[in-house]
């Protein structure tokens, strides 16, 4: 188990739901703050930002290597610089966003993309760091974030087992003692069929750490399935309305969907229960209403047992229904009224 912002995270606790703001502010601080309020109203546990500028991620170049492929359904043909320019959250917005989040009871943290971002976030007192999938190979950045002594969440989109191991080793070596590793398909939006959620137990075994899911598929189905397979953290992008557009809108949850995720992920976790087979405590009342053999019309001593006066009905209390063949043709040894459970001492 680990703890982020005072909230315990691990198999023994409900899923920790993280709402990713990303570029869904659409260039408006007021909209960003409205999303914070919507996230809090939905019952999510944390709000996450991304801390970068276009210049800390790339350079303003339109060569083919610096463009998103034309076939991309959301950002096809766009240069990386222009995309990051649209999507980034200005650093001067971080403080008011974090303050609003904390006022609303949310854990607020961010994903830094370079050392200057870590420096800024340290000054803002974030309680944890997230390493984005594309940065999993940036071991110096991982070591820098881990060296703060704060919990670290690492997304593993696109990563091989060797790259995941290297990232985890780097984090531990730099002093990280609270680590979460997220399964992720780093496609936007991501096809559900490529989520490979059955690998979550493998990811847990490979790293020995708490695992979760950073999910870019539509809806909440994949996230709920992940909970059943051991995910303790669920991260989803959130927007006020997909109809408003924006760089991440197409694969983001709206507030009502986020609220459903919070409710249903907890319900999914609760439903996992224990590795036991047998009656549950809540089924005790139901056990009383199983079928058993009963006298279904008044009988006198000496009457034969027949299908007309003894049947398998609810409730329990009489002989097992399978005893019917053994009792038919025997005789009652005393009078019995309709509704009397049939027991061996009656015949």
TrEMBL record:
It holds the Pfam family SAF. Its EC number is 2.5.1.97. The keyword Cell inner membrane does not apply. InterPro entries: AFP_Neu5c_C_sf, Aldolase_TIM, PseI-like, PseI/NeuA/B-like_N, Pseudaminic_synth_PseI, SAF, SAF_AFP_Neu5Ac, SAF_PseI/NeuA/NeuB. Keywords: Transferase. One of its GO terms (molecular function) is transferase activity. SMART domains: SAF. Gene3D superfamilies: Aldolase class I, Antifreeze-like/N-acetylneuraminic acid synthase C-terminal domain. Residues 292-347 form the AFP-like domain. NCBIfam families: PseI. This is Pseudaminic acid synthase.
